[in-house]
Design brief:
It is built from 3 helices and 9 strands, in the order E-E-E-E-E-H-E-E-E-H-H-E. It is α+β, with helices and mostly antiparallel strands. Strands 1, 2, 3, 4, 5, 6, 7, 8 and 9 form a 9-stranded mixed sheet that branches. A hairpin with a 2-residue loop joins strand 2 and strand 3.
Length: 165
Amino acid sequence: MEIKGVSVIAFVFRQQGNAVQFLMLKRTKERGGFWQSVSGAIKDRETAAQAAMREVEEETGLRLRRYVVADAVNVFYKEAEDTIYVEPVFGIEVGEGKVVLSPEHILFRWCSPEEAMALLPFEGNRAALKAVCRTIGAPIEAAAAPKGGERAGTGGPSATGGLKK
């Protein structure tokens, strides 16, 4: 078995008055068809934080205002590869702007923390969202199970298949 840290998970958020909203993206059917946050591979000579910021721009067209490093990592296992994947978790705050989806997603939706939690099919991703909420001070109700036939799982394939500025 192998352990790899080759990707990141980034929860894009914005302030709407006193509330925080998270951007959720729906993958194409060919890429699993599930809802997720931004995720992606870390390229050569790139830090995890640099990868998170680049992936947000590539997958959403939005620009970073600030980022936070959450006190969590997303971990999932791919049986076909007999590999455990470990992803650092980031919160990426964006300002106003139009979302422009990359070809790997078909829909987007701005959600409350609770709505975002209910869309995430993997427990590891839900734990990562909770960590981002703790880090940015956004209240979140108890975790909801995925809705409407979304599959449940543990970590989930995101990218593979403190305040900073």
